[in-house]
Amino acid sequence: METIAFLGCSKGLGRAVVQEYSKVSQSPFLLISRTEKLLTALKDEITTPTEPFVFDLSRTENLEPLIDKLHENQVTRIFYFAGGGPFGLFAEKQWKDHQWGLNVTFLSPAKLIHSCLNQGTLNHVKQFICIGSQLADSQADPFSASYASAKHGLRGLISTLAVEQTALDLRLFRPGYMDTIMLPKNAKPRIEGDTLVQPEQAAEVFKIWAEDPSGVKIFDLKV
Q1: Largest CB tally within 10 Å, which of 27, 158, 159, 201?
Q2: Burial of residue 85 (number of CB atoms within 10 Å: 0-12, 13-18, 19+)
Q3: Is residue 197 predicted with pLDDT exceeding 80?
């Protein structure tokens, strides 16, 4: 039986994907988030066998407890949704805020992917999917410099590894701007009235693509 770990799943797209999978799957879920209250609420909403695990994914210097938990549960699939960064002019934000964004959006998934490859601790993981961005990982994203930098790095890592190795089904899901609480009220797409992707809509597409063994490695969600 497979075990799916959802990392950064207490809000937004991650939460919607957990709910989408819970409609049909009885495979065990490992739900991971830094916010215990939201994690508990999500666990109570679904019927799938679930173990919540509170962990701060910005702790790149100490991912060992998380890696141990993933190994203990013999996780076979990892869906990594966590990401973010300060909104505003780069120079006006404290470095610790930029560091947080780089850690949670790029360095933590990169370290976990490394542990899945070759003879790493997580070599039982067969599929690893991260969330990119059609905008932030390929062009300038005003007032989101550290977030865009991390997303650029994530796309570069996954696209390169997809060419280098075949043992791990490594993929990147790239929606546009999403209508979640993580998108600030004064963000450019909200102010200009751009079309925003609804998390529930994206979750349906995500599941179809993730379950297709022949699916493309980098998937752009069309709206």
Answers
A1: 158
A2: buried
A3: no
